[in-house]
Structures are given as structure tokens and as C-alpha cells.
Design brief:
By secondary structure, this protein is α/β, with parallel strands linked by helices. It contains 22 helices and 21 strands.
């Protein structure tokens, strides 16, 4: 009787947990609401979730997924195999944790589910028909356990698994038997990589395993098209491959090439990785699947983004080229926004299969391998020193070390060109000498800005020695970007007013100061590199720029002009010689904060100030590089005031650029700062309406 009651209680508890997890997951479909923490915070949360995935099975293996409908699924031999090295690595850096003991327990579980013929079972659970891919992935865990413990039982298991895989391989290097749906798959390069891991610990079988691995990698290379895409990379023939399996294929080729010292394999992997890097740079986070022309889908495969981050990080380790480290960082920051740090146990710390949750890759589930790859990515980024990154260019003539002009990989570059363009091009040489241009990095939210900002930049370029050296785009932007959503939550009344104002039809066909302008229309931006990234260490409305990007900004720019990334703080403020310039439409002695012009209108001011300041960690408290008084006495509406403020300030960016370079010019330092104003609440908006329509 008591067992029955206990079973009912457990079922009810599991049902409640699923309900709470599903509700939390639904809220997380708006990632802009999330703050993000340090890499260490997110890594710790990921590892803790992997611990819980192991506890959920009660047997040592890691649950395949947490399913928002069905709950925890059975343990998965394939992915438990490569979770083992992740836990061991975390234990090295955190010896106080349970990670090492848990890794060994998971490896022991792998021994218990290995079949008598040496293979590992297909699917989830502890029993099943043999599967060659699962067997290969289990080898990663067995090899690492043998390295850590020296227990010969693991060496014997590695030998049995690898011997079985070699026998199952066809003469051309492919595996047709014992693989998913009985089809050939290019992503079996990860089996080849596993065989090479086996060769590293079993000298007596090393040649056999290396030969089998090479046969498979050379076979997979034949599936690679000139544009870097792979045939046979999907789970099912005829489907477009998931980013997950594309990344599997690339990583296997890359690691195989490194271990076999085969440049052809490395170059092929790098070429395909470069195509995806350019897609990330051009369109943002990678999508769920890609067809043969590299056209993506409406949803994102989060697992694949983590995997490609690892590929780029590995290429950074091999080449030292900064673009790979930045691409890995961008992937990590994108994924942080989809990892909950405060949800119910079944989902806290985990990475979903897709974003949105109903996307085509493992919808409504949190696969353990997504969280494993995310943890590996964060751990790898901890070893990156951005200042050590290099770009292979000759600063005297802009040529690469081979003496050839650098390859352009811009908007119109074909995948074929990108797939074979190994050298990374940098726009412009390091500025030296009195006549050198003044290098300006532009920070934007997304790819659009307001017309008055475009005119300010054009004026700066026309009237000063400035040139655009770099464009950094905040991917966490737009109507549902973090800044807008968090302001909306904090100031709901003003958010409603702002949305209503934006939707109101505009009269006439003339240009307005706040018209949207695509930044590609700006002079001097056409041939400049764009870096897409996400803010890091997000706390409320304050953001930092990732260190990898800050390092690039510091190397390529003399000053930063901020029109994006919200309230910025951190190392960006001191990354360049002349800091970060930013507009504030208000006199800081009386009106800090915002919204621009609103409180001046409410207080019947006859003038308002506009400044360009060098930012500090305090809001609107920087050194003023340009100041103007704007006459607003004849303005009857808030919109008229804003037009005067914005249109009247377009020349101030040029003034500020001149001022920071002129050591003879004393900056305006405001000692007596005014109060900080905030968006109005409902009562204040009502007062505004009475004033506006009286």
C-alpha cells in the first residue's frame, strides 16, 4: 500500500515539475528578458544540470534529454560516452566538485552496457542492437577513463569497441552496416576521430585504427562539395542536414587531419567552417538546417551553434587568428541567452535543442549533448587570450604572408570563394604618422540607425580626418531586443506610449530625423569588416562587450562611437586611446537620463543642451567633448523639441572627434551633475497628455 502511495506521489511530483518546467521554458522564449552572467556562472550551471541528468537515471549514465512533455528520458550510451571527458576536464579545474567521481561512475556504466561483441547499443537505454556511431562516441569516454585511472578494463573495452568498428567498416571507408537507417553518413568522421583516440592509448592496434580512420576520412572528403557543403550529412538520405550533423562532420575531419598530420583534411574542414563563420557574420546566429546552397531555416539549432563554436575555437588554437575566437565568443553569448540560471531543476542550466522550442531539431527537449557542447565551449573560451590573437597580414602593404592580396569575404562573396579563403583580411593598416587617418569604430544595435545619426557620421567623415575602421553590431537588438524588452518591463506605461507613437501614421512624404537608414548606405562602411556579437555580463540595462571583440576594437581603432549596446561599461571604455564617444540629448548639469526632450518639455524649458561625451561608468557623467544649447522656446510639441535636438546635433560628432585629438583644447568637465531622470510612469504620462492636448 505504501509503495503504491509513494509511486503516486512520485508521479504527481514529476508532473508538477514538468508543468513548472514547461511554463518556465515558455517564458524563456523571450531571451531578451534574461540577464547573462560570467562564463563561469553559466559553465557551473551546465555542469550541475549534467549531474542531475545522471541522477535522473539512477544508473550512472546521463539521461538523453529532458522532455517537457514526458520528463527525463533513459540514459544514452552514445552521448554519455562523450560527456565523460567533459566531466573529467571540469574536475581538473574544480577539484572540490563531484565531477571526477561522476565521470568515472559514468564510464563504469558504459562498461556495463557494452555488448559482448564490443559494440554499444543503438538508441537510449541499456539494451539494443549494435550501432557503430554510438560505439565510436562511447570510445571517447572509455579512452579518457583509461587515461585517468589506468584501469585495464577500460583499455580492453576500447580495444573491443574499436576492433568491432574496424570489422564493420566497408572497404571504401564508409560504414553501411549498423548505422542509423542502414545509410551512409558523412558525420561518421566522428567515428574516425574516435578510432584515432583509441590508437593513442593502444600501441599494438594503432596502425590498424589509423588506417581505418584515414579510409573513412578520405571517403567523407568525397562527399564535400566545392562550396563546403556535405552530401550524406543528414540523418536520412534526401533531407537537408541539421547544423548538428554538419558540425559533427567538420569536427571529425579537423581532428582527424590534426592527428594524421594531413593538411588536405584540415583545409577541407577549415573551408567549411569558414563558410559558416561568414554566415554567422552576415546573418547572425546559425540556423537549424542548411541546404546545398547554404540557405538556412526559420529556427536555430542551439546544439549545432555550440558545436560550431568549438570548431572555431579549435581553429583559433591552431591558427591564432582572432576571427575564430570572436566567432566562438558570439556563439557562446547567443547560447547564454537560452540557458536558464534560475528555473526549475529539470531545465536550469540546460540548453534546448532548438530556438524556438518548436523548431525542427529535438523540439520541446533539452538534449544532454547540447549542454555538454556548451560546457566545452565555455571551458575552452577560458583559455583564450584575446591579445595574443593574430591576423596574417603585412602591415606595410596589406598583403598576406604569401604575397597575395587578401581575399574579400563580403556580402557578395560566394560560398566557393569563402570555402577556399584561408587568410583573414584586415581592412586598413595600423595608423602611424601625423597624416594617418583617425580610426573610428562604430557600435550599432542591429543593421539600422536613425537618419540624424547617419548624417552625423557623414559630417564627421567630411569635416575631419576620421575614417571608419570597424563596425560592431549588437545582435541582441530590435523590437524584442534586450534593451527594449527590459525597459518595457521596467517602464510599461512609457513602453505602451512608445509603441503607439511608432505605429501612428506619419504625415507627408518628407524625410524625418528618425527615419531608419541601413548602415550599409553610410559612406566608408562598404569595405569595412562587420563584427556581430552579443553583450556579455548583462545586468539590467548595463552591458559589456566581449573581451575578444574589445581586443579587436583596441587593435583597429583610435576611438569608438556608440550608437548601440545600451548602457556600456567595462574594458571597452579604455580599449582605445580616445575612449568611447556617445551622444546625450540633455544638459548633464540639469537633465541626465531621459527620454530626450521629455522632461524639458514638461518643465517648460526654453533651451536644452546636447552633448557628445567620453563615456565613464556613471550615467551621463563623462567628459564633455562638444556642447550646444538648443533653442526650444518656439517648440509646441515634444516631437518638435526632439527634431530640434537631433537635427541640431549632427555636427557635434565631428566637433568631438576634433576635440579629442587637440591637446590644446580643454574639455568641459561637469562637477555639479544634475539628477537622473527616467521614463515617465502612468501618472506622468497623463500629465503629459493634458499638457499636449490642452
Amino acid at each position: 500500500m505504501f509503495d503504491g502511495i509513494s509511486g503516486v506521489s512520485r508521479s504527481l511530483s514529476a508532473g508538477v515539475a514538468r508543468g513548472r518546467s514547461a511554463a518556465h521554458a515558455a517564458r524563456r522564449q523571450l531571451p531578451a528578458l534574461a540577464d547573462t552572467g560570467s562564463d563561469e556562472e553559466h559553465l557551473s550551471a551546465a555542469i550541475d544540470w549534467l549531474f542531475r541528468s545522471q541522477d535522473a537515471t539512477g544508473g550512472g549514465g546521463s539521461a538523453a534529454t529532458y522532455n517537457l512533455v514526458l520528463g527525463w528520458e533513459p540514459p544514452y550510451p552514445e552521448t554519455s560516452g562523450y560527456v565523460v571527458p567533459t566531466l573529467y576536464a571540469y574536475g581538473d579545474d574544480h577539484p572540490e566538485s563531484e565531477a571526477t567521481d561522476r565521470a568515472t561512475a559514468m564510464a563504469e556504466w558504459l562498461l556495463s552496457v557494452q555488448r559482448d561483441d564490443g559494440s554499444f547499443p543503438e538508441g537510449t537505454g541499456e539494451r539494443g542492437e549494435p550501432n557503430v556511431f554510438n560505439t565510436g562516441q562511447a570510445v571517447f569516454g572509455l579512452v579518457e577513463a583509461y587515461r585517468r585511472t589506468g584501469d585495464e578494463a577500460y583499455a580492453d573495452a576500447v580495444r573491443a569497441a574499436c576492433d568491432w568498428a574496424v570489422v564493420a567498416q566497408d572497404d571504401d571507408g564508409a560504414w553501411r552496416r549498423y548505422d542509423y537507417e542502414g545509410e551512409v553518413h558523412a558525420y561518421t568522421t566522428r567515428i574516425a576521430w574516435a578510432l584515432l583516440e583509441g590508437a593513442s592509448v593502444l600501441d599494438d592496434r594503432a596502425e590498424t585504427y589509423r588506417n581505418a580512420a584515414r579510409r573513412n576520412l578520405e571517403w567523407a572528403l568525397e562527399s564535400r562539395r566545392p562550396n563546403g557543403w556535405f552530401e550524406n550529412a543528414a540523418f536520412v538520405a534526401g533531407d537537408d542536414p541539421d547544423l548538428h550533423t554538419i558540425a559533427y562532420t567538420i569536427r571529425g575531419l579537423l581532428e582527424g587531419g590534426v592527428r594524421l598530420d594531413d593538411d588536405e583534411l584540415i583545409d577541407a574542414a577549415r573551408g567549411s567552417a569558414d563558410v559558416l563563420l561568414e554566415l554567422q557574420r552576415r546573418t547572425g546566429a546559425l540556423t537549424g538546417r542548411y541546404d546545398a546552397d547554404w540557405d538556412g531555416t526559420w529556427y536555430h539549432c542551439l546544439t549545432g551553434n555550440a558545436q560550431m563554436g568549438l570548431v572555431w575555437l579549435r581553429l583559433y588554437e591552431l591558427t591564432g587568428e582572432a576571427e575564430y575566437a570572436m566567432a566562438a565568443r558570439t556563439a557562446a553569448e547567443f547560447l547564454k541567452r537560452h540557458q536558464s540560471l534560475d528555473g526549475p531543476d529539470p531545465v536550469r542550466g540546460a540548453i534546448p535543442g532548438s530556438y524556438p522550442h518548436v523548431g525542427g531539431y529535438l523540439y520541446l527537449r533539452y538534449p544532454n549533448w547540447a549542454t555538454k557542447f556548451f560546457a566545452d565551449l565555455l571551458a575552452g573560451l577560458a583559455t583564450v587570450s584575446p591579445g595574443e590573437a593574430t591576423v596574417e597580414t603585412d602591415e606595410t602593404n596589406g598583403e598576406t604572408e604569401t604575397g597575395e592580396a587578401p581575399v574579400t569575404t563580403g556580402e557578395n562573396a560566394s560560398p566557393e570563394a569563402i570555402a577556399t579563403a584561408w587568410e583573414s583580411a584586415v581592412t586598413g593598416a595600423t595608423a602611424t604618422g601625423d597624416d594617418a587617418p583617425f580610426r573610428v569604430c562604430l557600435l550599432f544595435d542591429g543593421e539600422h540607425t536613425e537618419r540624424w545619426v547617419a548624417e552625423a557620421i557623414e559630417t564627421m567623415l567630411a569635416e575631419t580626418n576620421a575614417e571608419i575602421s570597424l563596425v560592431v553590431i549588437n545582435e541582441d537588438a530590435g523590437l524584442l531586443g534586450s534593451g527594449n524588452v527590459k525597459r518595457g518591463v521596467k517602464y510599461p506605461a512609457y513602453a505602451a506610449y512608445w509603441i503607439a507613437s511608432a505605429l501612428r501614421p506619419r504625415g507627408g512624404g518628407s524625410e524625418r530625423y528618425d527615419d531608419s537608414v541601413h548602415i550599409s548606405e553610410l559612406t566608408g562602411v562598404d569595405n569595412v569588416e562587420w563584427i556581430r556579437t552579443y553583450p556579455t555580463n548583462v545586468s539590467g540595462l548595463w552591458n559589456e562587450v566581449p573581451e575578444e571583440v574589445v581586443s579587436e576594437i583596441g587593435a583597429r581603432s583610435d576611438v569608438v562611437f556608440r550608437r548601440g549596446f545600451g548602457l556600456v561599461r567595462g574594458s571597452l571604455l579604455s580599449a582605445t586611446e580616445y575612449g568611447v564617444l556617445s551622444y546625450h540629448h540633455g544638459d548633464p548639469r540639469a537633465y541626465r537620463g531621459g527620454p530626450a526632450g521629455f522632461w524639458e518639455y514638461m518643465h517648460d524649458e526654453e533651451t536644452a543642451g546636447t552633448i557628445v561625451q567620453s563615456l565613464t561608468d556613471d550615467l551621463d557623467a563623462g567628459v564633455v567633448r562638444s556642447y550646444r544649447d538648443v533653442d526650444i522656446a518656439d517648440c509646441d510639441t515634444l516631437d518638435e523639441i526632439r527634431r530640434e535636438l537631433y537635427e541640431g546635433s549632427t555636427g557635434q560628432l565631428a566637433e568631438a572627434v576634433e576635440a579629442v585629438q587637440d591637446e590644446r583644447q580643454d574639455p568641459m568637465i561637469v562637477d555639479d551633475l544634475g539628477p537622473v531622470y527616467h521614463p515617465p510612469d502612468l501618472g506622468e504620462l497623463a500629465a503629459y497628455a493634458r499638457k499636449r492636448y490642452r
